Amino acid sequence: MNELTILALSGSLRAQSHNTALLHAARTLNLGGPAIAIEDALGRLPLYNQDLDSGTPPVPVADFRARIAAADALLIATPEHNASVPAVLKNAIDWASTPPEGLLRGKPVAIAGASPGPFGSVRAQLALRQILAAVGAEVVVKPEVTVFHCDTRFTSERELSDPYTADLLRELLDALSRKVHPYTAAK
């Protein structure tokens, strides 16, 4: 049997991103679960343009789609930009969800997010859930991991230091793993 894999996407391109740090923390906490690979190509994807979405899409798009297709599930960490998801994340979802591939239909997806503000990424996650529902992804509903005041929950080296957030991440990964098994059996 092949090892199960989770592809982790950060909606932040910032080098010192708390959302990317959240994905690294998830990978560290996911002992014995599916392997987590952190995607680093979102910033290289061109803006979605249907004229480019042909039988031979741009190389970064083809490579990204191949990694999405190979993954058994996705873990997305999103910051909140203007009460919604960052453009780079929406762009990646557009490339992954458009015909003919429609790679997100039925794919298990878990969502988390970090923000220095008092509400975490609540509104971004709400918008992301709506987008993912529209493309047919199987979104993990609970727990909701909205890391507010994230600058106090990570060390200066971007390592997660908050045990409550760590517990929530473990619960989220467990819930995602439970969704992955029926999905992979149907493949």
TrEMBL record:
InterPro entries: Flavoprotein-like_sf (IPR029039), FMN_Rdtase-like_dom (IPR005025), NAD(P)H-dep_reductase (IPR050712). It is an enzyme of class 1 (oxidoreductase). It comes from the Bacteria. Pfam families: FMN_red (PF03358). One of its GO terms (molecular function) is oxidoreductase activity. Its EC number is 1.-.-.-. The keyword Transmembrane does not apply. Residues 5-147 form the NADPH-dependent FMN reductase-like domain. Keywords: Oxidoreductase. PANTHER family: CHROMATE REDUCTASE, NAD(P)H-DEPENDENT FMN REDUCTASE LOT6. This is NADPH-dependent FMN reductase. It comes from Nonomuraea spiralis.
